[in-house]
Specification:
The structure is a single chain. By secondary structure, the chain is an alpha/beta fold. Helices cover about 35% and strands about 20% of the residues. The chain has 9 helices and 13 strands. The strands form 4 sheets. The chain has a 7-stranded parallel beta sheet with strand order 3-2-1-4-5-7-11, with helices on both faces. The longest helix has 20 residues. The chain is globular and about 60 Å long.
Length: about 290
């Protein structure tokens, strides 16, 4: 009788492990024989093996194929937050080569990071069946990668992540920008305070991914979000409040938000988000104040 993928310790490769989501995922104590790729040699948590090289290098990909991985968690996407057509195309071509060569080497399970931007300009709560409209080039590129993966004939889970925030987020992102501004005693000026987003704390995202990764026998697309819309203004107000700034009592009319229907992931692996906006912002500010780099 064939073992289900999770009754044995799988030899697993994680790309993008030093990124925003990757760092949080490595804290989740995934089971298995874990390996990561990195461009530069870095110290890694105990029990994780590093393979150092460039994923755009064909020789490095051949070397990875020889390692006989059984599962690949593909998070790498170079150059973010650069969403130019050039950068998107480069990442698509690199990702396709990685997945193709590893599928040929015997990988039996792919776990890949998608994006809620794949829903385009849809609003309201969306499930995974919804087809996005008016897609950005970045979203269109992700959809092309999804279609490519679906055609490889290998089991896959596509983790469609909504607006994640938290430690190690890019400095140009909303919360790090608001933190920097608040440190200087000024509330970040928002051009569109009434925009609403489905914000989800990065550790909740990582927990969702790890629970999904460790659930055998299911495949396809899974939304990972809070299921709720939060005004951009309310996120910044939560940060300003935590940092002792006076909150402007400004009434704004909320635009309808794109939010995740998370019924599928909850029913599949039991995940629901734990961290509220206030808790998540507090965790982020505490991390920033400690100058934490781990």
């Amino acid at each position: 009788l064939a073992e289900s993928p999770r009754t044995k310790l799988m030899k697993t490769l994680i790309t993008g492990s030093s990124g925003f989501i990757g760092r949080a995922l490595l804290k989740q104590n995934l089971t298995g024989d874990l390996h990561v790729t990195s461009r530069v040699s870095t110290s890694l948590p105990v029990g994780i093996t590093g393979h150092f090289g460039d994923l755009s290098d064909q020789e490095f990909l051949k070397y990875l194929a020889e390692q006989e991985f059984e599962q690949v968690i593909h998070l790498a996407w170079e150059g973010l937050p650069n969403l130019s057509e050039e950068n998107n195309l480069r990442n698509l071509e690199i990702s396709k080569k990685i997945l193709e060569i590893l599928a040929s080497s015997g990988v039996e399970d792919f776990q890949i990071a998608g994006s809620c931007l794949e829903y385009g300009d849809k609003t309201g709560q969306v499930n995974e069946e919804v087809i996005g409209e008016n897609l950005s080039d970045f979203a269109d590129t992700k959809i092309k990668l999804l279609e490519f993966v679906a055609g490889l004939g290998v089991a896959y889970k596509w983790h469609r992540i909504f607006y994640s925030y938290g430690p190690f987020q890019h400095d140009n992102s909303l919360l790090p920008s608001a933190f920097l501004s608040a440190k200087n005693g000024v509330s970040l000026k928002l051009s569109n305070p009434n925009i609403s987003r489905d914000f989800v704390y990065v550790d909740d995202v990582a927990k969702a991914m790890s629970q999904l990764i460790e659930t055998p026998g299911v495949s396809g697309i899974f939304n990972i979000g809070s299921g709720k819309g939060t005004l951009v203004k309310d996120l910044v107000d939560a940060l300003n409040s935590k940092m002792g700034l006076e909150i402007q009592d400004q009434v704004v009319e909320e635009n309808s938000a794109l939010t995740a229907d998370i019924k599928k992931i909850t029913e599949t692996c039991g995940w629901t988000p734990d961290v509220s906006i206030e808790q998540g912002v507090k965790k982020f500010v505490d991390w920033k104040d400690l100058g934490t780099r781990e």
